[in-house]
Queue: 2 jobs
Job 1
Amino acid sequence: MNIRHLEHLLAIAETGSFSRAAERSFMTQSALSRSIQTLEQTLGGRLIDRIGKRNELTALGHDIAERARAIVLGAQEIRLSAQRFQQGDGGAISVGLGSGPGALLMTPLLCHIATRHPGIKVSIARGSTELLLVQLRSRELEALVVDARRIAPAPDLKIEALGELRTGFICRADHPLARRRKLTLSDVQKHPVATTPLSSEVARLLVEQFGPRADPDTMASLRCEDINSLIDAVSQSDAVFLGIVAAAREGLACGRLKELQITPAVKATARFAYVTLAGRTAAPVMRLFRGFVREHLRD
């Protein structure tokens, strides 16, 4: 018995067909049949029942296939690890960024790699946390940096907290509210509120502090995953941005935007996490990305 025999069994288990499994394994159907027969002889029992045109795993087959998945995955990770460590400073960074991390990290990361590490290839996926998790689990992405409150703990995920960032209300510098010293949430809500989709926990915190009128489902007029687009809209309209203050740092620094000081101040914060697959070998180049994230994902 070897890894290839187990891979062939899994191919049949997943396709339900010797012909499709043989095609996926780049071999003839007869060669695949001989591989399964060898595995059955080694284990001393039938693994597949051939019922007409259908192929079903026996009880023993189901048990072996379940165990084989971990073995095959481990072998794939060993091969991948060896390839990665031979790449040195090259290789690739393939990551997913949530709305907040994307606004803070994407452009600085691209500039940093292009100027300091031109041998590294970078691919960044954007979208909802749910979509990025699907891509992580399908191994299209190496890691995610996302809103920690939108990640449910799972055995296959390694979730590392990255700290919290302050949130607040931002408007353009010449906004009617920008000239006022005392503001309440009611004052802000007289204008369109722009925000990203917020987690249920953040929504709960806002409602606890300000009451039902602060529920994002009813308070938000403009909502999308791209914070930069929201801030651009705020800088050109009477809309007010609710979210990570650090995402507007450039506009705040040059005087184009202003943070509103409402009473009471918003207590809810943005909490981010670095998410990878548990047991997956990280490429050496990912240490560079991880360090970059910790340095730049701050107020």
Note: The longest strand covers residues 157-172.
Job 2
Amino acid sequence: MASTRILSFNINAGFDLSRRRFLLPALRDAVREVDADVVLLQEVLGEHAGHARRHAQWPTQAQYDYLADAFWPHRAYGRNADFAEGHQGNAVLSRFPIAAHGNHDVSIAGHEARGLLHAVIDVPDGSQPLHIMNVHLGLRESHRQWQVARLVEFIESAIPAGSPLVVAGDFNDWRMRVHPLLRAAGLREAFEDTDGRLPRTFPSPRPLLPVDRIYVRDAQVVATDVLRARPWSRLSDHCALLAEIRF
């Protein structure tokens, strides 16, 4: 049974922890070296006219297209937040065909827009497609509780039982309050499977908080890694997560 490598990374719009240094070209090199089959990105800019004027290395295309290039020919973008100079959201880059995708709004009025990006991927030799949920939850506890409830409702209604599922991204759940809700929905956290605890990913220079995660259902976790050494510790305010799964 073939395995699939999944990378999840909040890229902080291509800036470092301070939001002063634009590092997207170096980030692209690092992501390519990992050689993941499927890449889940959070806080990725589809467009930003102001940054494009200020930074000479700013790409002419959307950040997810710039990162994917020919390495990941299939991609999906969930546009969450619109602002005066552009828009931001989540993205899925894949070596394998994306059969379908959709972005599901879980925003709270008056607060930063959030979405759940669902992608259905046709993996080689898979008897069933792989379902991906790329998430970025809110900063308030009550918002995360509500958003996870919507996530679980979607999984139960739209993803067939027995189909392999990966739910990954930035959960902002540093107090680990929504983690039991996800486990109760039949999801297992990949690093908890391999290491016995959730991965610490924030802030990247000295990660203390377990805010980024990779959950699976109907899949076997083969290996996991928190990418915290250089250059990763300087490419964003979050560490990236890598998991190898079989299903």
Note: The longest strand covers residues 38-48.
